[in-house]
Design goal:
The chain contains 19 helices and twelve strands. By secondary structure, it is of the alpha/beta class. It has three domains: 120 residues; 240 residues; 61 residues, no CATH class. Strand 7 and strand 8 form a beta hairpin. The longest helix is centred in the middle third of the chain and has 18 residues. It is globular. It starts with a strand and ends in a 7-residue tail after the last helix.
Amino acid sequence: MVEPGYPTKFPPLGLMKISTYHKELGDTVKFVKGYHSEVAFDFWDRIYISTLFTYHWKITIDDILSYKHLLHGDISRMFIGGILASLMPDELWRATGIKPITGVLDKPGVLMDDNNYIIEDMIPDYELFDGTNIKYMLLDSYFGYSTRGCIHKCDFCGVPILEPTFVEYKGLKPYIKKIDEKYGVKQHLVLFDNNILASKYFKQIIKDIIDLGFHKGAKLNDRLRHVDFNQGTDARLMKEWHFKLLSKIAINPLRIAFDHVSLEKIYVDKIRLAAKYGIRSLSNYILYNFRDTPEDLWKRLKINIDLNREYGLKIYSFPMKYIPITAKDRSFIDEPRWNWYFIRSIQRILNVTKGIVMPGEEFFYRAFGETLEEFMQILYMPEQILMKRGRIPGNEERIWFKKFNKLTRNEKNELITILCENRTRNNLKKAIAQIKNKKLKNILEMYIPKPEEYAISSLFT
């Protein structure tokens, strides 16, 4: 069982289920993260390789080709599946010579065996990573699906390809009972359903969750238990009765999608309903770089801050940059609404905050600005100043603001154009040497890292 060497926090659920399948058949299974040459000294009847995001294309293909070499041409013993494999099967085939298995493994025989096992219905092998130094999250949790698919076909989402059939009810009880019998009771419940609210069996799913011991306030070993609909819930489908039901389970956090500023009224109404029913720990992914603007991003983040203050909530925001579902890297920029430097500035802020926008007002205002105008100024800021900001503006930051506020609108546009077109330190220095506008030349000098800063800066690469 191979997971390519890309970074990931969650364990590969597909491989865990396939491992259970093979152990049911009496086979010996080994897990490897990335390519390890020592496995070349053993003969492997089969090699399974999972795939995740398409922007991990290079490392995924490199690892597949490395393991393909071990088979000495017998590619019938290699099985590739997962998200990337399902979204880009033809390109993966051309790059590796191996035709992947696509979609959910929800039928007998998909692994070319003559039996009636369905991989999708297997429980994950929680012992797969024993003996390795891999530390995944969720291994103290039940994790899986109570539904599959989604009723929508959003342009930014790969679910209609990955899970084209909406399965409204899978039945959690038998799945979790089997895990309990083999691995013992788990602390939390994490569900990866892509649109659980679209199921007409939602009431039954909530009843199942309560029956399984995840009612509000539930504890195990004197620790509170949590339920997490990890992929979020659809604000457009939420009714008041949904919140009444959700308030009866150990939901923490409740994730409500806020994908575009046009959904503001719907989103705010649903947050107010959450507060009404005592659900105070909330979270959401804030999609940006997709048919929006930097201003739209700030407005959505600010809405959460205002709701926190008004209702005494804790909404944790996770800004997530849009990348096309078949992109082979993360370089996509939704121009002209966004530009490379503004995207880079957002990423620099989030690097400092570990990707989280915390609920507190003081933190938000310092990181993202108290006003929309201040936020837009922050996006222009030199990286070395942006990343060193403390609670109080330093001297270098004040000097930069003074110079920046003297620029005209056209000069600010020219500034950002120069920065976007000259992404290396040497190119920027050459561009500055050609500039005749003294104000621009003067402020651009602040964008060249000092020698000690350049050694640790990742901007000019």
